[in-house]
């Protein structure tokens, strides 16, 4: 029997407890979950790709079947390179579904073997986004309820270094 390997892609800038919720739950469904930090050249990131990957890896204690990787190309090519056909996407609201559905159909068009699994976030994180966290940080808001402790410390360091305006 072959392992069911899934890829959970995202920018994770920064990683939120909502992302962790999806990671933890997907890790119970699939034999192996690859959290893939993606690079979107049109986005302005707070953390580098490598920093985001490191912060995620530090947050995954006890999840032995989860791996963190990076990709700066097309997701579909990455998924194929990892010898899987499964993509996991987290959904918070209807607007997420519309965007993710469009991407899933595009990926399916590019490779009919690709399957996208949508996971609804837990209710307590349905409003949470990385953008919201970054906006709070700009105004020195408390983000401890929204991100893991290591991410909060990294955000604070970026703030102290003047990287957040």
TrEMBL record:
One molecular function GO term is:
pantetheine-phosphate adenylyltransferase activity
Which GO cellular component terms are attached? cytoplasm
The region annotated as signal peptide is none
Query: Its annotated pathway?
Result: Cofactor biosynthesis; coenzyme A biosynthesis; CoA from (R)-pantothenate: step 4/5
Is Cytoplasm set as a keyword in this record? yes
The function of this protein is: Reversibly transfers an adenylyl group from ATP to 4'-phosphopantetheine, yielding dephospho-CoA (dPCoA) and pyrophosphate.
The entry's protein name is Phosphopantetheine adenylyltransferase
> Which organism encodes this protein?
Acetobacterium bakii
Its organism's taxonomic lineage begins at:
Bacteria, Bacillati, Bacillota, Clostridia, Eubacteriales
> What's the gene?
coaD
